[in-house]
Each structure stands twice: as C-alpha cells, then as structure tokens.
Design brief:
Elements lengths: L3 H12 L9 E6 L15 E4 L8 E4 L5 E6 L9 E5 L7 E2 L1 H13 L3 E4 L13 H15 L1 H4 L6 E6 L1 H11 L11 H4 L7 E5 L12 H8 L5 H7 L12 E6 L8 H12 L4 E6 L18 H11 L7
Parallel strand pairs: 5-7, 5-8, 8-9, 9-10, 10-11
Antiparallel strand pairs: 1-4, 2-3, 3-6, 4-7
Helix pairs in contact: 3-5
Length: 316
C-alpha cells in the first residue's frame, strides 16, 4: 500500500490547530465486537490520496470490520455531549479525513466527544440495511459506553456529509420499527434514536427529480421498488419525533441539489421539529472541513454556534 496517504494524514493531524486545553485523547474500537482495535488494524479498509497532494484527503474503501475512532476532549473541557460522524462518499467509499477524522477532532477541541464511524458500504453485500445497521449500532454503542467516555447518554447526536448525511438522516428518522434489529442483547437495551442531527450537503431524497443516483444505486440497487424509495427518502419519514436538526448546503451544489436540504427542512417545519438551515451561495459539493473560499468557509462557526445555542457545547 502506498504510505503517502497515511503520512499526509499524520502530518495534517499534527498541525491542526487545537483547543486551548490540549490534544484530544484518541482510542479505537471494533464496532461489531466492542473490543479495542490494535494499532495498524484498519478493518479491511484501503486508502488512496485524492485532491490536494499537500493535504491529507484520503479515500477509504473496502471496510468490512468498522473501526470506530473516539476523540475525547480534555477532562475539564468536556460538555458530556457526543457526536457520531459519518463521512460521505456516495455509499461507494468514504472521505475519511475531511469529512471524518478532522471533524471528530474539531468536535473534541470544542469539548464534545467526536466518534468517527467508517460504516460498511460499496454496494453488493453492503447494500441496505447494512450501513443503517452500523449507524444504529454506533448510537447504541456510544450510549452503552457513556460512563467510559464521560458522555451523557441523552446528549448523543449524529453528523453526516453527503451520503453520510443521508445515513445520519436515516438514523434520525428510522429509529423505530424500521431500525435494523440489534443482535447484541447488551446493546439492544439502548435506543438508536439520536438526540440531534447535523446534515451537511446531505443526500435526502431518493426521488428521480433531486436524488443522488449514485448513492441510491449503491444502497438499494438500480431498480428499487416504490416502497424502498419512499422509506429511504428521509424527508418523507420525518415525524414529530425526529430530533432537532441543523442543515448546511451550498446552493450551487452540482452533485446533491440543494432541494434535498430544503425538503428535509420543510418536513421538519410541518411536523414541529426544531430545525435550522444555512444555505451558501457558492461552495459546490464535498468541501468538508476546508471549503476553499467564500462565506461557506464559515460553516463550522455556524455549527459551533448551533451547538452552543442548544447547550451541547460551551462558548469559548
């Protein structure tokens, strides 16, 4: 395997600005067993560097055994809230750094526990409901380990980008009878419903007019039935029980039309769900934590303000 992507990742992580309290505490676990992961164990994932050669922007594929990375803040900084992060990638792979590690670290620097989940995807045997099962288990697993990570089990949210935004939205809306059955009795005792959701340029609808065709095909195949399309068009699954939600999107997004966020926002409004949406004139798709220019570069500040406003983070 080419060592360059890993080297760039380590350099970039070392140089990322940190909260005044110091470096986050990082630990890794197997999602499917809960056991600690050994150094070098990537759960079957392989990586390639994409985009800027001077910045770690790895693309991960082939995950068969998700390795959860937990970023914890300094003890005296913790808000006791946790955010589970789902990177995007059209359900074919994962933008593991700019929509994953850097996000979880950013959260820890602000006093939250950031939990990166590289869910199984890529079509084939990892079509629906496998990604949703991984997401639901992650929510339960975080709650089951609340004492270990000093987390309030009633302050566990999800944050996803693009297809990861679809997965986060699915987790926020399909947490009842449609949640994949949990096979571990110890985890089944905990709810899979997140307490809040952050959706960044999310693929919301699987309808032909605005849906992201690649995500839909990788998740439910080329010829899905109406029932599957409706179930996984998450704006159609919003109810009064959907948790408070923040939406982030660029109006000029060429991959996932902004109407996806708008439909979810409208559905939340209809059902009385607390919701906030930030639309940016430019930004395109897939900017992650480092949008290059324009007002969209400030979207992390909007997220931080929202977290503070909901009592999930403290003003720095």
């Amino acid at each position: 395997m080419n060592p360059l992507p890993r080297l760039l990742f380590l350099i970039a992580m070392a140089s990322t600005s940190t909260h005044a309290g110091g470096e986050p505490n990082v630990s890794r676990y197997h999602l499917l067993t809960g056991e600690a992961a050994e150094a070098g164990d990537e759960g079957g994932a392989t990586y390639e560097q994409r985009g800027d050669a001077q910045r770690s922007s790895r693309w991960a594929t082939g995950v068969t055994d998700p390795i959860v990375t937990v970023y914890r803040p300094e003890a005296d900084l913790g808000s006791r809230a946790a955010v589970i992060v789902f990177p995007g990638g059209g359900y074919s792979g994962l933008a593991i750094d700019k929509e994953g590690h850097f996000v979880a670290r950013w959260l820890a620097e602000r006093g939250l526990v950031g939990v990166l989940v590289p869910y199984r995807c890529g079509g084939g045997e990892h079509q629906h409901p496998v990604p949703q099962a991984d997401a639901a288990r992650a929510v339960r697993w975080v709650r089951a380990n609340a004492r270990r990570f000093d987390i309030d089990p009633e302050r566990v949210g999800v944050l996803g980008f693009s297809a990861g935004g679809h997965l986060a939205a699915s987790t926020a809306t399909l947490h009842g009878s449609t949640t994949p059955k949990e096979t571990d009795p110890a985890l089944a005792a905990f709810s899979a419903r997140p307490d809040f959701a952050v959706l960044v340029y999310p693929a919301i609808s699987f309808r032909d007019d605005v849906g992201h065709r690649g995500s839909r095909t990788n998740l439910i195949g080329k010829d899905p039935g109406e029932e599957e399309i409706a179930l996984l068009s998450t704006d159609e699954q919003v109810t009064a029980d959907t948790p408070p939600t923040l939406l982030i999107h660029a109006i000029d997004d060429p991959g996932v039309p902004v109407e996806n966020s708008q439909r979810f926002y409208d559905a939340c409004r209809r059902h009385g769900v607390p919701v906030e949406m930030h639309l940016y004139e430019t930004g395109g798709h897939g900017f992650g934590m480092w949008a290059p220019a324009g007002s969209v570069t400030r979207w992390p500040a909007a997220l931080e303000a929202w977290l503070v406003g909901r009592g999930l983070a403290e003003t720095r």
